[in-house]
Design brief:
alpha+beta, Alpha-Beta Plaits, Aminopeptidase, 2 domains, seven-stranded mixed β-sheet, four-stranded mixed β-sheet, 11 strands, globular
């Protein structure tokens, strides 16, 4: 693991990460640093009482947008639900929802700290980060936020206050980004929930090769401007 000062703007080769995926410690969460990290296949993940930790796990969990799995019961739910969707209408609300959800779960290494919140708000203000919201009438009941670079969306976190809200938002993201020509949704690390939705694990070298090509394509903001409030399957 490499440690470096807050003025250091370069990252080590992600292939040098340890067996647990930990690559480096220190640095900063300025927008240019975060964007460099994402383009390099690296992401921050740390607790309140730790320095900034940077990770590049092997394997890497991704979803190819066109491969999203929609079960029969979920398809029926989507067709019948009165929940609605929006994009970039309540980024801070989604961020807080994810932070509260993670804190309640008390999972190690998953705190969304105040420093992290400020960093992603800056990315959102510059149209590098986006949120997808799930609404029950006027109440926010689920959502997902992440970072968009080229034709890759790096999903950071999602939350669900009612059943199926997280599945609804993930299907929405995959459908919309597939139509916009996105090639990858980066999920970082695996979970039974993600695998059940069609996620797969890629060897890090394979992931980095795909990332380099997809992230180099100029970012098109169109996909985030015309988000349907309901899914049509």
């Amino acid at each position: 693991m490499k440690a470096y000062s807050s003025k250091h703007l370069g990252f080590p080769d992600p292939r040098l990460a340890g067996a647990d995926g930990l690559l480096a410690a220190g640095g900063n969460l300025e927008s240019h640093t975060l964007l460099e990290a994402y383009r390099s296949g690296i992401f921050p993940w740390f607790n309140e009482d730790q320095p900034i930790l940077w990770w590049s796990p092997d394997p890497r969990t991704v979803i190819f947008p066109e491969d999203i799995h929609i079960s029969r019961s979920l398809r029926r739910f989507i067709r019948q639900t009165k929940l609605t969707l929006s994009c970039d209408q309540d980024f801070e609300g989604v961020l807080e929802g994810c932070a509260q959800s993670r804190a309640q779960q008390r999972e190690p290494g998953t705190w969304i700290t105040g420093e992290m919140k400020s960093a992603y708000k800056r990315l959102f203000e510059n149209q590098h980060a986006h949120s997808i919201e799930v609404w029950q009438e006027n109440q926010l009941v689920g959502g997902l936020y992440g970072v968009s670079v080229g034709k890759v969306f790096f999903g950071e976190s999602m939350f669900s206050a009612i059943g199926n809200a997280s599945k609804l938002v993930l299907v929405s993201v995959c459908k919309q980004l597939s139509e916009a020509g996105f090639e990858l949704i980066d999920c970082q690390v695996s979970s039974p929930h993600l695998l059940s939705m069609g996620a797969r694990e890629l060897a890090r070298d394979d992931y980095l090769c795909r990332l380099e090509q997809a992230a180099a394509i100029p970012t098109d903001q169109t996909a985030w401007l015309t988000w349907p409030n309901r899914l049509n399957l």
